[in-house]
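Lab notebook, design round three. We kept the backbone fixed and only want residue identities now. Task for the bench partner: fill in a sequence for the structure below.
Input structure tokens:
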């Protein structure tokens, strides 16, 4: 009888030790978060995302792990934003499509809004850019962590374009953003909103004739294989935003929140340096593939969109528009 009682006690102790071990292991399991974007693994967005993931794991001592999903694996831009709102996606890199969820972002998509890269940086890294992100968070439940810079958007086409008149009848893919649609219509083209993942095949089959994106973005998607000309319009000095679900953010400890914010800033610096070094290499790759670069007088393109810009400024944020314009001075 005593032997049975001893064996029973030993069994109970073993079960308690196992339960404690499992509880400890569970407590030590990292929080695994997902980051999605639409670019390929060769793009600076992805490399910046990987750097961000490394920094988060390092700064949280392994309590938070970020898994990166490129090439629209978690969905297109709209899917990623909606996922962050409900908490099924934790982080995403999204550019202008955010304007469909928070209208003042539409101002940032106006063609020829920013004079150059310095003008853009002055805004997004200043007090006005911070306020814009805070307002977006309140309205959407999506937190803006950092603005990452991009090269200027350029036109690629299979028709030689030197002026807005040459765009007549050109079917151009644009993101599903009102400023892009109306801007290119004003410049004379026939814009077609389309997810970026469909662009290569649509150019290949003639569904569209042209597209517009930063050079590195265009090259990483191999668009130059199905386009003849790169037209240096510099029509948008833009950004991509590292965004985070507020539901996910509030589920972190205070130390983890601070680590994520620090990691986002360091990853921004890494990506910004990388993207412009890759821009040069991407341009050379396109030249080597036989793409012809056309330097155009940008002033006629700029004048063509001014009426559209004024109209959309009144619709989406005259104060924000005027603030950015005043920074030119």
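Proposed sequence:
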């Amino acid at each position: 009888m005593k032997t049975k009682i001893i064996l029973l006690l030993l069994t109970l102790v073993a079960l308690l030790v196992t339960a404690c071990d499992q509880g400890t292991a569970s407590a030590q399991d990292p929080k695994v978060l997902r980051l999605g974007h639409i670019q390929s693994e060769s793009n600076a967005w992805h490399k910046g995302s990987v750097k961000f993931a490394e920094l988060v794991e390092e700064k949280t001592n392994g309590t938070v792990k970020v898994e990166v999903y490129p090439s629209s694996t978690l969905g297109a831009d709209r899917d990623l934003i909606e996922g962050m709102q409900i908490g099924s996606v934790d982080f995403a890199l999204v550019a202008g499509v955010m304007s469909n969820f928070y209208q003042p972002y539409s101002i940032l998509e106006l063609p020829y809004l920013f004079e150059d890269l310095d003008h853009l940086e002055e805004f997004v890294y200043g007090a006005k850019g911070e306020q814009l992100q805070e307002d977006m968070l309140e309205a959407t439940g999506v937190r803006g962590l950092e603005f990452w810079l991009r090269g200027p958007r350029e036109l690629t086409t299979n028709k030689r374009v030197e002026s807005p008149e040459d765009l007549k009848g050109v079917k151009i893919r644009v993101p599903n953003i009102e400023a892009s649609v109306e801007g290119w219509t004003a410049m004379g083209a026939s814009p077609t909103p389309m997810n970026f993942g469909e662009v290569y095949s649509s150019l290949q089959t003639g569904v569209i004739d042209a597209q517009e994106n930063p050079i590195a973005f265009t090259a990483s998607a191999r668009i130059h294989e199905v386009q003849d000309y790169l037209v240096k319009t510099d029509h948008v000095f833009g950004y991509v935003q590292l965004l985070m679900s507020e539901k996910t953010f509030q589920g972190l400890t205070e130390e983890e929140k601070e680590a994520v914010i620090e990691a986002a800033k360091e990853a921004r610096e890494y990506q910004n340096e990388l993207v412009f070094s890759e821009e040069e290499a991407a341009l050379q790759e396109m030249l080597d593939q036989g793409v012809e670069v056309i330097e155009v007088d940008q002033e006629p393109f700029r004048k063509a969109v001014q009426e559209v810009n004024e109209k959309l400024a009144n619709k989406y944020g005259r104060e924000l528009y005027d603030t950015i314009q005043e920074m030119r001075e």
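Keep this in mind before ordering anything: The longest helix spans residues 254-288.
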